[in-house]
Amino acid sequence: MRAYHSYDPCEGHWLAHSPIKAIIAPRPIGWISTLGPDGVANLAPYSFFNIVSEKPPILLFSSEGRKDTIRNIEATGEFVFNLVARNCAGAMNVTSADWPSDTDEFGKAGLEKLASEAVAAPRVAGSPAAMECKLLETRRLTDIDGRDVDAEVVIGQAVRIHIRQDVITEGQFDIAKAGTIARAGNRGDYVAVTETFEMLRPSMVR
Question: Which residues, in sequence order, are CB contacts of 152 under 8 Å at separation 6+?
C-alpha cells in the first residue's frame, strides 16, 4: 500500500506550499468585468469559479476578501464573465493586481472594451467567449462551526452569450482552438488546453 501525506487543514500541511489549490485543479478562470456606480470599469480574475446549471446557465464565483468586483455587482446587479485564452494570459495577470478602486483595469492591461447588449458592464475585446450575467444572489460563507469565512459567493444567470466565430468548429465551441487556460495551483502555475479527447457516457443496456 502506498503511503499518504495526511493532515488536518486546521493544523497545517507541513509542505512548502498549500496543496489544496493544486489538488483541485485545473480550475477555470472567471475573468469578471463590472461597472461601478461611478462609471469606472473593473476587471479581475477569479479561479474559484464554475458553472452550476446549463438550463438556465448559472455561474458562480467566490471572492476571498470584499473587493471592488463584489461591491460593483451588489450595486448594479450585473457582471460579465470573459473567457481567458492563452494570448490574454499576460493581460489577465495584470488585472489580478490590487489596483485602487478608481482604476480601470482594462486600461492598465491594454485591453479594448466591447459594449455588452443586456448589461452595462463591458466585455473584453478579443476574448473567445463571454457571458453577460444578472445577479441572483451573494452569500457570505460560514464554516462548520457557524463562523464567518472571509469569502463571498456570487451567483449569476447568463442572459446573453457571445462566441467568436473563429473558435466554432463543425457547430461546436472548440476549446483547443480558443486556447483556454486554467489555474493549476502552486503559486503561479497555469495550464493551457491544446488538445481534447472524446469519451461518451455509456448507455445502460438492460
Answer: 62, 63, 66, 70, 138, 139, 140, 141
